[in-house]
Amino acid sequence: MEVTRRAAIAAAGTAGLGAFAGCLGGAIGGDGDAARAGRTPIDDHPVAAELGAQPALGQTDAGATVVTFEDPSCPTCRNFERNAGARLRSGPVADGDLRLVSRVYPIIYPWGKPGVQALEAAYARDGGEDAYWSLFDYYFASQGQLDADNVLDRTESYLSSNTDLDAAGVIADAEAKAYDGAVQADLDAGETAGVDRTPTIFMFRDGAYVTRASGNVSYETITSALQL
């Protein structure tokens, strides 16, 4: 089975996924004036670790970049994707003004952990980028029907019916945690950056850090901060 991109950073092992409070769905928080004063280059920011290996939508030369830390089992992440996320994809991303980068952060319900293992296993395959986003959307759309006992069976059925990937191979890799190194890279980046809830959104403009927001993040919050 050919693998791409993530294969370079996926390491064998079963490192713990960590436990943080998350999906609090409360107030939006940010670094505000302090972040703007610092103007940390994106390449120097902790969320940029292995950034080129992450699933992303939009042009690589877009003037603005958003890096999201999301858990497919998190209801607040689902709300973000249904509202702000959908509008970002159909608006600034489609227009070439924004690059949207996804990092997984399974810290809420137990099924999120095998779910993100499947996401990484799908993404690592040839042609897996489209499959990643399709499965990502499926998890949020089916969130209330998924649990730790059925998530991989339902994932296999979904991939078999909706993608060209070897669905059984993806599930075998997810069960073996074959891409746990990629999952852990996201968790390490988030922990270093102080992510303690999902979603947490990091915003960059013209190659430099602007601010972050967590919880019920609106479309307007992001577009205003990034001047989109």
Automatic annotation (TrEMBL):
Cited InterPro entries: TAT_signal (IPR006311), Thioredoxin-like_fold (IPR012336), Thioredoxin-like_sf (IPR036249)
Transmembrane parts of this sequence: none
UniProt signal peptide: none
Recorded superkingdom: Archaea
Coiled-coil region: none
GO MF term set: oxidoreductase activity
UniProt keywords, alphabetically: Disulfide bond, Electron transport, Oxidoreductase, Redox-active center, Signal, Transport
Pfam families the UniProt entry points to: Thioredoxin_4
Domain Thioredoxin-like fold: 53-223
PANTHER family in the cross-refs: DISULFIDE BOND FORMATION PROTEIN D, GLUTATHIONE S-TRANSFERASE KAPPA
Protein family: Belongs to the thioredoxin family. DsbA subfamily.
Name of the featured protein: DsbA family protein
Organism from which the protein derives: Halobaculum halobium
